[in-house]
Known about the structure:
Blueprint: H1 12-21, H2 29-42, E1 55-64, E2 70-76, E3 81-83, E4 85-88, H3 96-108, E5 114-126, E6 136-145, E7 158-165, H4 177-189
Helix pairs in contact: 1-2
Amino acid sequence: MANVAPMFPVVPADLIDMLNVWKPVGPNQGALRDEYVSFVRASPGSALDRDGGAEHVTASCFVLTPDLDQVLLCFHRKGQFWVQLGGHVEAADVSVASAALREAREEGGINDLRPVGGILDVDRHALGSGFTRCSVHWDVGFGAIASPDLAPSTSPESEDVAWWPVTGLPENVPVDFGHRLRRILDAIGHQSDVG
């Protein structure tokens, strides 16, 4: 497959620029960021395209309450676990960040989201057998704030959506999800636009 630019607004160079200016907070995030840059540079035509191969970039949005005490999670239909909102970059998305917000609105049913900063983390993970087209997601994590008074609603990709205390996550979450959430909260704590 030729490495041509995808036929939608997200440009691989824009993601590379975002990754290069991002100041990672968590351990090993800098080295992983460098691997992301290499991955996108090596396959600019397919790295952001869900149909471009079994490994591609995805966008997550950790939706939190203003006090950062609760996180909005969905029970993922394919994965059969509770996880942050997010998914694939689509043709209408102008950036990976906009893909994360779109996915959060679609999967969580809450439109009133206030983005928090830029990239908060990167998380490359293999997928289980329930995912037929994808084997590895190169996930880019973003954040947003929403009122816990807003009622979430499910989507075709989730069986349930609910607010969970960040210190009382459900048992059925992906391995290391608690560590990733802590990394997200630490990254938000280093930014000045929360409050």
